[in-house]
């Protein structure tokens, strides 16, 4: 069984929306009360309250607050787990020496929604291809909310539900969404593959993808195209009084612009990754770490960084390209199509420095865009990297540990199919399309 997440748009009527808003306020109140209890217990008595301590008090709380009963015990428990996860993340950051970020109180306006951790208390009723209803609660007090959306799974079992509220800044109204995790059999996840190609891909900024045959996919540069408009809106907002009506209107326009950028990026990545897995039996690329690649160059007071502004621009382009999201999509889509996704170990393989013809290391600066090796191989740098990861992907799975990345001497000038020690991705869980 695989897990896939699908999202539906909900269309509650006026009374249902008022009721959902009231439920969000009650969940936010429970979250804040649990946070206050933890703070006061440690401040006054030095006692650390756990999730289980607070969960065991829920029956008593519902006796004094009967309006919490219709929310469901499991949904209330999930709200307490949400606070517990926030504290776990806080202690993890403290231990790692990072900025702690203590859990904060949340107003009902900023509380995004609530969750049902299992199928109890709700039911999805799919009607037709693009619509259906979501039942919340049971008995006479149950709500039947219309929903719109679809997914491609004929056989599934609902696992959990998250209801979220987002503000539509164009209309000023709230929109409700239901994200449902489905348990889907392997057979229902299958994607149809139309080809058996083997390709090497080098993801980059100048071009979003460079292939081993020299072809390329242009980088749409969603953020760069919107930067002039974004800068203009931010300058206008800076001249307004903070909290005023015009300030809020401009803030809403900025949010809408960022949402359009994110939607365009997600749509592009879904289309490109789907096209790749449909025609390829083997997809080879390198295992990138965008978080490390986009690290700030400011440095410290004792050791200030160099070319900080240029590095900030590069970081913006790296994050805008969505490498991490592309890897996630390729992983689960390749598994569903029966393709192999090979991620080369960048630190050991060094695709941008290695020659695809003789396997020798040829050091290059980032500004050098052509690969020139003493063996006579001259290729664009990104195409050479794509060929290197493709060679690394040709592997005999029954003989691990004898890969080319472990060789101490370069190979001959003739390219061969080497074995690899870098890992492949057999399966994963991710969002469905």
UniProtKB/TrEMBL annotation:
Residues 323-388 form the Cas12f1-like TNB domain. The keyword Transit peptide does not apply. Keywords: DNA recombination, DNA-binding, Metal-binding, Transposition, Zinc. One of its GO terms (biological process) is transposition. InterPro entries: Cas12f1-like_TNB, Transposase, Transposase_put_HTH. In the C-terminal section; belongs to the transposase 35 family. This is Transposase. It comes from Pseudomonas veronii.
């Amino acid at each position: 069984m695989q897990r896939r997440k699908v999202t539906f748009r909900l269309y509650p009527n006026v009374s249902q929306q008022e009721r959902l808003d009231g439920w969000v306020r009650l969940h936010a109140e429970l979250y804040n009360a649990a946070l206050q209890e933890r703070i006061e217990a440690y401040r006054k008595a030095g006692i650390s309250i756990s999730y289980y301590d607070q969960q065991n008090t829920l029956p008593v709380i519902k006796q004094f607050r009967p309006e919490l009963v219709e929310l469901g015990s499991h949904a209330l428990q999930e709200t307490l787990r949400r606070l517990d996860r926030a504290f776990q993340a806080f202690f993890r950051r403290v231990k790692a020496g990072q900025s702690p970020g203590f859990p904060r109180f949340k107003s009902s306006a900023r509380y995004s929604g609530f969750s049902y951790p299992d199928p109890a208390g709700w039911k999805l009723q799919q009607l037709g291809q693009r619509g259906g209803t979501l039942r919340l609660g049971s008995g006479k007090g149950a709500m039947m909310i219309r929903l719109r959306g679809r997914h491609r799974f004929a056989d599934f079992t609902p696992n959990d539900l998250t209801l979220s509220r987002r503000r539509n800044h164009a209309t000023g109204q709230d929109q409700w969404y239901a994200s449902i995790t489905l348990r889907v059999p392997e057979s229902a996840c299958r994607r149809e593959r139309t080809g058996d190609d083997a390709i090497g891909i080098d993801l980059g900024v100048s071009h979003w993808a460079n292939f081993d045959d020299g072809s390329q996919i242009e980088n749409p540069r969603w953020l760069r195209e919107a930067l002039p408009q974004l800068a203009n809106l931010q300058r206008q907002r800076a001249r307004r009084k903070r909290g005023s009506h015009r300030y809020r209107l401009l803030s809403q326009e900025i949010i809408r612009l960022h949402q359009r950028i994110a939607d365009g990026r997600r749509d592009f990545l879904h289309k490109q990754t789907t096209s790749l897995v449909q025609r390829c039996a083997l997809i080879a690329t390198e295992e990138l770490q965008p978080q490390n690649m986009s690290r700030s160059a400011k440095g410290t007071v004792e050791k200030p960084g160099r070319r900080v502004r240029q590095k900030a621009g590069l970081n913006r382009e790296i994050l805008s390209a969505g490498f991490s999201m592309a890897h996630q999509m390729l992983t689960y889509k390749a598994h569903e199509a029966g393709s192999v996704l090979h991620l080369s170990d960048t630190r050991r393989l060094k695709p941008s420095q290695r020659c695809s013809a003789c396997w020798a290391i040829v050091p290059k600066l980032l500004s050098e865009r052509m690969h020139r090796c003493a063996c006579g191989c001259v290729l664009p740098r990104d195409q050479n990297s794509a060929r290197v990861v493709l060679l690394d992907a040709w592997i005999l799975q029954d003989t691990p540990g004898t890969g080319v990345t472990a060789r101490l001497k370069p190979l001959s000038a003739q390219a061969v199919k080497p074995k690899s020690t870098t890992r492949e991705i057999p399966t994963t869980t991710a969002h469905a399309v």
